User: Fold this.
Amino acid sequence: MESLLEQQFGTPVTRQPVSQPVSRQTLHNESLIHYHQALSDRSIFNNCLHGLANTNFHHAEGTDTAVYRMADKAVKKHINMLDGLALFLIFRGRDRKDQSVVATGMIRETGGVKIVYANNSSRSASPEQKDYIDELVEKFKNQYPVDDILKHVIPFCKEKIVQRCKKLAAIFDMNSTTLREDVSNFFGVRSDVAEYTEIETTLRDQKWIQKTTSLSTALDTFLRCAAKLTQLSTTKDIFYVLCLAYGFTIITPGMENLVKPLIWRRMKKMADYRKICIRTRDVIRTIGGSSASITVDQLFPPDELQYEVYNSTLEALNTWSTVYPSDSPLQDFESQLKEYYPDAKEGQSGKIKILFSQHCELTVAKYLLRLKTATKSLLGPIEIGCSKASCFWCDLYLTELNHILPAHGRVINRATHGNLCDGWMMPQALPGYENVNTKVLDCIGCQVETVFACGNDRRRKSDSLPLDRGALLQDDEMQNEILKEAMV
Assistant:
């Protein structure tokens, strides 16, 4: 019987265990061909992903994807709107982490649009949530006031909103019980700079703050209100905080020069809820308003599946040495892995269960690509919104897919956080795009090779691997060199 990975990727060619020692040069020459064969073993695939996630040596800051950076302004604006729509579809009361991320896409049709969305779970939206979506669409079509639309969104998206507010408050060591009432000017804004006076005057003139309230006092009040929010907070309290965030970041350009970048990003994420109400309402008006045909369909990924993997990072990664016996198993976590990857997690001996799921942006991308191939209805790029930046594996998958697609029809999503996620499910290869899956599996093998090379302190010399440097390439440098070789 075929394994799950075989069903998704195709039946692999069986690779027999190596009984005799193999030279490092021969192993390297063969490895790029056989990575995808070895990783077609579900147990090895699962354990390698888990081990890499525990090692997780990327820890990169979130960054825009290359295709997004090169896109024109109209495409970026549309993707940002889709990102915002995804936020409106993260419902309250989600009891599982894999349902807290949503991806969206939009298909223009005669007289209207179809919006599609997916999360990492195959669970369908509840009747209450479907009613919320239908009513939200009607409010957009009939050009309801922005305040009314936002007040409709808040009760259903409360969990995500409160989470964003807590992240801002945590920067200042504040929460719902520790409001630090004896402190003032948390944001450290200077009243002697031009931006301060301009922002304060604008907020007063547009009645975002009272005439007698200073900017620093208004920011302190905003922060304490955000810190006090909980899942039991009223719509009115949350609405007040989101509106203030919008006023500070959107209405008054220049605030980014007064506060630290991380604080600015957190505030903008809170302001997104009001901003996307405005942008979406404007888009709906341009395509016909109340007479437009707007449908919202949920897409479903393959069912999530739970598998046992080794909890210990060393044991999980060492499944690789069963494929290549000449790779000595890693023996000691502290001296072999922790030395090179300070953030690596050791894990306990034994096994744990990990839930594997197909990530939502890949579900939307595959649906739109199939539609584009079958109907030729999507002439431009495949634009995807997501409530969260993509992981390293999803970004890699979409990058390899874009290598095959024509330049004018590539998949464009906004950002990647660059980290290796545990429980990532390889999508089933689309006909004609099988090479994408092969490339991704090759890259997973390269990542494991990198960890083994660092863990075993191997020297990259001319008699073992290319690039005679006489010293070990560390972390990102080594990984980049191996990935360059793999992608040639």
